[in-house]
Amino acid sequence: MSVTASEKKHAKKVFDLLSKIYPAVKPALEYSSAFELLISTILSAQCTDERVNIVTKDLFKKYKKPADYVKAPSKVLEKDIFSTGFYRQKAKSLKNCCAMLIEKYNGKVPADFDELVKLPGVGRKTASVVAGNAFGIPAIAVDTHVRRLSNLLGFIKSQDVEKIESRLKELLPESYWINSSHWLATHGRITCVANRPKCLECVLADVCPSFNPNTKKSE
User: Fold this and answer.
1) Residue 189: pLDDT above 60?
2) Does some domain include residue 39?
3) What percent helix, strand, coil does the chain show, rounded to 5?
């Protein structure tokens, strides 16, 4: 389905408004390298960024390079990441991912989207997060906030993350791609909260097709 000029204008207006109230957006995950961001993003599946940051504070002191994850006994690694949930599968993904980094990429995280998605445990969202934030490669990461707000703001009517990613890329200039995820996620956490949106306090009230004047003001 083609994108009209008016749809592009609407989307750009929405993100221009968000950019003004969230001028210094950045990933909620805490990291100091592309490798740490990759590990954190894998751990963030079905887990809050806050919880991941708590876990990685100690994890990154213990596991500094891919070989550390590969050599670690599975039971030990599972215990170290237990509170992020799905710890057995995540431990397996981390070990397999790090093994491939060593075998195929000389222990370095590839600065290429198509190579990133080849890594075990890495889907389009994780690849987009790493490509965009670690390497500055234009990409849009679709998390739960981005999916929910993309529908509420009238960009698309779909829960399919790949369709949402493609739609946003059609709607927005490439220079907006990386931050678009952060703007929507930040707005989703602060104002457009799931099941209790603060519509009366929202900067997007005049341009949001889902605006509800009957929502309660926050105390």
Assistant:
1) yes
2) yes
3) 60, 0, 40
Active site residue 125: yes
Other CB atoms within 10 Å distance of the CB of residue 175: 9
What pTM does this model have? 0.92
Residue 215 has a pLDDT of: 78
Q: Are residues 147 and 63 in the same domain?
A: no
Domain assignment of residue 45, given as a range: 34-135
Let me know if 140 is exposed, middle or buried by CB neighbors in 10 A (0-12, 13-18, 19+).
buried
Q: Which of 104, 143, 157, 198 is catalytic?
A: 143
Number of domains in the chain: 2
Q: Which listed residue (80, 125, 160, 216) is catalytic?
A: 125
pLDDT recorded at residue 2: 83
Q: Rounded CA gap, 41 and 116, in Å?
A: 12
- Domain assignment present for residue 209? The answer is no
Instruction: Tell me which of 113, 135, 157 is where a domain ends.
Output: 135
pLDDT band at 164 (very low <50, low <70, confident <90, very high): very high
Name 206's Cβ contacts closer than 8 Å, sequence gap at least 6: none
In a domain, 123, yes or no: yes
